[in-house]
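Page header: ASSEMBLY MODEL / two components / 577 residues total.
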Amino acid sequence: MTQAHIPRSRPAGDLHTETQLVSMGPSHPATHGTVKIMLEIDGEEIVEMDVQVGYLHRGFEKECESGTWYQAIPYTDRLNYNSAILANLAFCMAVEKLLDCEIPRRGQWVRTLASELSRMGDHLTRLGAACLELGAMTPFLYGIEARELCWDLQEMLCGARVTSNYIRIGGIQRDLTPGFLERLRSSLARIEALLLDFDKVVTSNRIFVDRFRRTGMLPLEKLISYGVTGPLLRAAGVPLDLRKAEPYLVYDEIDFDVPVGSIGDNYDRFLVCQEELVQTIRIIRQCAPVLEQTVGEPVNVADPRIRWPGKDRVFGRMEELIQQFKGVTEGVKVPPGEAYAAVESPNGELGFYLVSDGTGKPYKVRCRPPSFANVAPMRDMLVGGMLADIVPTFDMINMIGGECDR
Amino acid sequence: MAAADDLLAKLRALLGADVLDVHTHRGDATILVAVDRARECLQRLRDDPGLAFNVLVDLTAVDYLGREPRFEVVYHLASLELAPPGGGFSGIRHRLRVKCGVPSQKVEADSVVALWDAANWYEREVWDLYGIHFRGHPDLRRIMLYDEFQGHPLRKDYPKERRQPLIGPRN
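Prediction written out in full:
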């Protein structure tokens, strides 16, 4: 961007001051994401700013269009690398909507558990990193220790800590590994203890509160006009959560609350995320007994045209070997049509709009990224505020470059 | 499915002949309108008190190369009901997909930034990746790619392997 893009909105006046143009980013230690912010500042006050995204654009949609439906799933991992399972889930739910298939009950419970684990990892990163970027190292380590426990559980689920590639079209990669639920119980107890420690160090800390309270606010009408969703909208008092508003998987059978804030400043956002972690643990605790009772039930759809039978059966039988071969080489044949499916990701509504022409490759894969919609109003949140408000606001928006820029 | 049909009946009553086509494939209510009428229709969908589509969830485009109109601009709308202070229902009343065809001779559509702020970045993205020009957009520059980039990569006639010349540092 050239200097001409930013209007000099405040004349020098009689004080003989002049505004200064500062470029923050694209790689800056206080922004956990690659974004460039062009700032026009008057002393410490922000007069104008231009947020420039796109540094992590890698042609996600173009790549998805060139492969089969299955080959798109690993790309969805790399959207929001803190909660990869939720991106897998949103994509697979949209494909399943096109296929008009329903996965078995146990599969839905496992998916719910996996989504909540993923959400927990994301929120822990957001809260921990927010503290770190304000100079508080200790709470960051509490958050990261808890996230490690989440990621260890994810590793037990699917063999990978970050890029899970766990949800499949018509089911999941594999059922829970032996010993998973015991490990889950002990990890949850430890995570709860860490959250309490985290809360003690941060939530009523004067330095922290002063940086967060009454910063980064935006009127509710503006938030709605910008299509902001997730904790940012809930912090402003709107209890919109797709898990309640348009229940998918088994969320309508689970008892949990949707926390809301009152004025929608960064402090409210922080508290909403903290409470969502508590609710997530509550949801996971309700999943565990159901998964214990339904051991051995199928997790994948029985149709081999959608989900192939799995290695244990492929090695012994001709028919299933052929199904696996056709499944891998040709992929699933999705009937022509279009569909939009969305899940509640840690940042808000994560949707996929898919168009199929029936050839076995996606014609169009559009990801509706919550980060993109949430970063767009950042200028309006910050103009008129102080330079120091940028970091807490950016942290609570939780821009994930991989998802925003695709 | 019944809810989607009910919604489409209301839309036909509101928009009349502007609705060129409808479908409810897999439960998603979808209408097709003419590109020149799209902005007017969207404004009425937003302002009608019974429909009140106050959220532009998503805006994207699809390139149907080899067919006319070649492009389609796709709007995903939602009607978010806000509970009155003190509690009550708050959720999504209904969702709607609005599409309009854009011919290859005139790759233009009207901007809806004045209706929803969310359209600002979405339209910049569609301009960047599909080259659809939005009339009346306040700041239509590339958002994902850099200014020197040649072409619009999500068009179906843009080869995936094409490489762009490197640009030097800008200062």
